[in-house]
Amino acid sequence: MRPSPARLLNILVPVKRCVDYAMKIRVNPQQTGVDTNVKHSMNPFDEIAVEEAVRIRERLGDKVKSIKAVTIGPSKSAETLRTALAIGADAAIHVEIPDSAPSPEPLGVAKAIRAVIERQKEQGGVDLVIMGKQAIDDDAGQTGQILAGLMDWSQATFASKIVVDAEKKEANVTREIDGGLEELKCRLPLVVTTDLRLNEPRYATLPSIMKAKKKPIEKLTPADLGVDLTPRIETIKVTEPPKRVGGTKVANVDELVAKLKEAGVVPT
Amino acid sequence: MLRCRLLQRTSQLRVATRSYATSASAHALLFIEHKDGVLDSGSLSALTAAQALGGEVTGVIVGAPEDVGKAVENARKLKGLTKLLHSSSKSYSPPLPETVTPLLQQILSNTPYTHVVSAHSSLAKSILPRVAAKLDAAAISDVTSVAHDASENATTFTRPIYAGNAIATVRAPSSVPLKFFTVRTTAFDAAKADESSGDVLVEEVAAVDVPDVPTSHVSTSLTKSDRPELGSASRIVSGGRALKSAETFNATLEPLADVLGAAIGASRAAVDSGYADNSLQVGQTGKVVAPELYIALGISGAIQHLAGMKDSKMIVAVNKDADAPIFQVADVGLVADLFEAVPEMVEKLKK
User: Fold this and answer.
1) Which residue has the higher pLDDT, B5 or A54?
2) Does residue A95 carry a pLDDT above 80?
3) Which of A187, A196, A229, A240 to mutate: most B Cβ within 10 Å?
4) Domains of chain B as residue ranges with CATH
5) Minimal Cα–Cα distance from B204 to chain A, Å?
6) A240, closest residue in chain B (CA to CA)
7) What is the pTM of this model?
8) CATH topology of domain A9-240
9) Who has the most CB within 10 Å: A29, A110, A225, A257?
C-alpha cells in the first residue's frame, strides 16, 4: 500500500547567490559597497543545505516527496538555482528582484520564504526547511531563526548532523555550540541551518547539469508574494578594514623568542 | 583595534527642552548568559556596548532555578546595570529559542526598551533573531561599534562584512523603534564588577509557560579543557593542516600552550581533518578572537581564517612556505619546519 500523501516529506532549501568565497573583496571608490563584478557562486553553507536535502532523500527514498530550492535575488540568481537543481533538487522558485534593487534584509527574505511556504500548501506544504547558517557576504546569520519565529516552527541552528524520521515527523539534530555539541529532538515542521561539517557537497556531473536545464523554475515577484523587500536599515558607507602593517621575518627561533620577550607578550 | 566609540552627546541637550510621547533616551535590554551561574565574559563586553548607547541598561537572566540565583548575585555587582530581571524554569535549562522567545516577547511588549543587546554567541544568535521576528524588529549582527543619537532615536553601528574584508557603517533609524544587535565581544572591553554597588533593582519575572514545545533537549557534550577559554584568552597557539595528525597536533601545540599559558586554536583545515575539535576553530565560521598574542603554526592564512584573528595585537607565524599569505599579516614571521622550530621555542621560552 502506498503511504498517504500527508506522510510524505516536502523539503524547501533557500539558497543565495554570493560573491565566490575565494574572491578578493574590493570596496568600490564611492564607498557604497563592494565591487560585485567578480565571480559569484552559491553561498557555501547553502550548498551544504542542498546536499543534505538530497542525502535525506537518498536515505529515506520515496518518503521524500519533493526538494524545492528557492532564491530571492536578481536575474542572475537563476544560475544559483540551476546549481541546486544539478545537485539534486527537483524544482526551483525564483523570486526575482530588479538588478538595481538593494540587497534585501534577513527579515524581508524570511517573509518572502514564509509567503512561498504558504503557496506550497496545495502541494502538500513544507515540512522541513534546510538553509545555510549564514551568507558569506553580509555575515548576518539571522534568516533561518527569523523564519522559524515567523512560522512559529521548531528551529535547529548550526547543524552538524540531521537524522529525520519521516513517519514520526521528527528530526534529531546535532548542533555546534560554543564549547561543544548539543543534540535536540525537533518536531516537524522544522527550520534547520547548516554548519560546515554537516556534509561534503558533491560536484554536479555533466549529465546532472544537463538534466537540471530541463527542471522547472517558477518565477515570482515580491508583489506576487505580497512582500516588501525595501531595507529598513540604511547603509551609510562601506570601507576597507584597517590594514595591518607588514611584519618582519626573522631568521631563527632565537630572534623569534627575543621579539616575543621584547613585546612583553610572554609570561616571565 | 576597534574599540567602542562613545556616543556624541551634543544633540542630547535639545531633548530636555522637548517633550516626547515616549522617552527618547535609550533603554537597552541586555541578554546575560551564564554557565551554571557563572557569567559569560561575552555578556560583560555586551554590557559595555549597551552602556555606549547612553541610557539605562536592564539585564535579563534566564536559566534553571538552581543556577539563576547565583547568576543574579554575580550580575548585580556589575557596573553599568540599572536593573536586573530574572526568570527561572526547568524549561530554560538549557535555554531553547522556542521556550525563551515568548518570555522575552512578553518582557519587551509594553515597555520603554529601545534596544536588545547580547554577545554574538551561539546561544544568543539562535534566540535573538527569533524574538526580533516576533516583534517585527530589525536585527544587526556582530557589531564592532555603537553610537546612539537620542534626539533622533537613531543608532549607527559598524560591522564587518565579507569575512571582515569590508566594514559597513549602518544606521537603524527611528522607524525601527526596537533595535536588536549582537556584539563582537573582542571589540569591547568587559564591564567590571564593583563590590560597592549591588543596589541594582532586582525583579523576578514569572516564566512563560509554553504548551506543547516542539523542541526538546537531548544532550550536550562540552569539550573539557583546563586551558583558558578560546574566546577570551590573552594568548592563543593555533595549528593548521601542516600538523599532520591529531597526535602530532596535540604533541606539538600543547607544550607551547603550556609554557605560554595559552589557549589552543585551529584552522578549519585542521578541524576538518580531525586534528582538533570543532569548538577550537578560529575564523569566519568559527570563533573570532583578538588576543595579545596569536601564534599561527602551519596555517597558510586563508581569508576565512584571517577573518577570525586579524585583530590580534601581535601575530606570529611559523610556516615552511615563505609565500604563505599569513606572512602578510604577521608581525613576526619565521620560515621554518614547525616540528623543529616549535620544540626549540618551548625550550627557549622556558629559560
Assistant:
1) A54
2) yes
3) A196
4) 27-204 (3.40.50.620), 235-350 (3.40.50.1220)
5) 25
6) B166
7) 0.91
8) Rossmann fold (3.40.50)
9) A110
